[in-house]
Amino acid sequence: MTHLFSEFSTDAILKVGNESLLESYKKSKQVELFTFIRTKDSSAEIIVDSLPFTIEPHSVLALTNIQYLQFIEGKDLVVYQFNREFYCIKDHDQEVGCAGLLFFGNEYLPLIHLNEKEQNKFNTLHEVFVDELETKDNIQAEMLRMLMARFIIKSTRILKAKDNTETALTSKDSKIELLRSFNVLVESYFRQEHSVGFYADKLFKSPKTLSNTFAKLNTSPLKIIHERLILESKRLLVYTDKTAKEIAFEIGFEDASHLSRLFKKYTSVSPSDFKKQLKSAS
């Protein structure tokens, strides 16, 4: 059974289910959502970025939204999928954020092996997830984000403690690695630097090289910068009382109208209208 949570005010999406969530990946395509695949008593076969991979029993695999996935086979799986607006809109510690160890902070595809005690903890956490997804109230979104944070924290601790990177799949695709490195830099500097040239210099690449490389991954360096700025704007509009003008200055715009135009381009509404929608939805 698949459970879907969506939040109109932030465009947040969370999907929790089994292998049926992976059926749309029978043909290789970009994941587009941050994804966790957990196996139980049997293994699963997938192809990630053209590399075949077996997820061993009682393991958790983390995939970023930029990777390409083909689902070959697997049963009795637990699958979590969410977009940036669901989890990344909250401010998290660097290691467990959307540029953390499980996603962009590692040159490996993280595979986390669970012992019996850890399996029981993850089973219990999944039961709480499902129960919360069936509880519709005004604090559901916050509870679900807390549960996902707990899942990511637990997974990150296990990965660090066991040094699973030695048994993980190494990503050999230089395009993916370049995109990950770019995302990590954007996470560090987006409040001050909005130009592709700045990040290209940091990566010892030309802006044209970045654009041509990312085009093969159906994105662009400027789009990634802009989407991060929009996400931060949404975060501040949702969780603070700051005005659109204050937010614009906080994330590096000298003129608030520049942010307003960018925000409207990506969301179809201005920051002030977005704030009004939040108040009317609450």
From TrEMBL:
Q: Which Pfam families match?
A: HTH_18
Q: Which UniProt keywords apply?
A: DNA-binding, Transcription, Transcription regulation
HTH araC/xylS-type domain segment(s): 180-277
Record's keyword annotation contains Transcription regulation = yes
Please verify whether the record's keywords include Transmembrane: no
Q: Which InterPro entries match?
A: Homeodomain-like_sf, HTH_AraC
Q: What is this protein called?
A: AraC family transcriptional regulator
Instruction: Give the species this sequence originates from.
Output: Flavivirga algicola
